[in-house]
Amino acid sequence: QVQLVESGGGLVQAGGSLRLSCTASGSIFRGYSMGWYRQAPGKQRELVATIFNSGSRNYVDSVKVRFTISRDIAKNVVFLQMNSLKPEDTAVYYCNTVPAGLGQFGSWGQGTQVTVSS
Q1: 10-residue block means of pLDDT along the chain (118 residues)?
Q2: Burial letters for 92-104: b for 16+ Cβ neighbours within 10 Å, e otherwise?
Q3: Which helix (H) or strand (E) holds 68?
Q4: What phi and psi values does residue 49 have, to the nearest 5 degrees?
Q5: Which of 26, 60, 76, 108 has the lowest CB atom count within 10 Å?
Q6: CA-to-CA distance for 73 and 77, rounded, in angstroms?
Q7: At residue 87, what are phi and psi to the nearest 5 degrees?
Q8: Tell me, what DSSP letter sits at residue 2?
Q9: What whole-number distance in Å separates Cα of residue 72 and Cα of residue 61?
Q10: CA–CA distance, 29 with 18 (Å, rounded to integer)
């Protein structure tokens, strides 16, 4: 199992921006579709953004236009640029394969907390 490491979260006011990063120790993302998931208190984890192996992207309706997923294959990093943040975006954000848990990515990382104040 590889260790996924998410970073870049923090406390931001509504309307602000954050850029999340995800790396993996001991493995590479090449060949996988990757996604950013989030889990708010009392809610199930949800997939919010996907970058497919082809490079195409997909977003849940609630983050369309505001969030952008990208990746740097050479550096083995997946990013999530979040703009126009809203209080309802408050959650712990995780990255994983899509579907989650493929190959050596069976374990979730610690996630990164995003808190948006109104």
Answers
A1: 92 98 84 95 97 95 98 92 98 96 90 98
A2: bbbbbbbeeeeee
A3: strand 67-72
A4: -150, 140
A5: 26
A6: 7
A7: -55, -35
A8: P
A9: 25
A10: 22
* 86/106 Cα distance (integer angstroms): 30
The letter for the amino acid at 13 is: Q
CA distance 105 to 31: 13
DSSP state, residue 62: G
In contact, 108 and 22? CB cutoff 8 Å:
no
Q: Look at residues 76, 108, 80 and name the one whose alpha carbon lies nearest to residue 94.
A: 108
Half-sphere CA count of 72, side-chain side, radius 13 A:
10
Torsion of CA 6, 10, 14, 19, to 10 degrees: -40
Residues 2, 73: Cα–Cα separation, whole Å = 17
Torsion of CA 86, 111, 77, 47, to 10 degrees: -60
79 vs 64: CA distance, rounded Å? 15
> For position 28, what pLDDT does the model report?
80
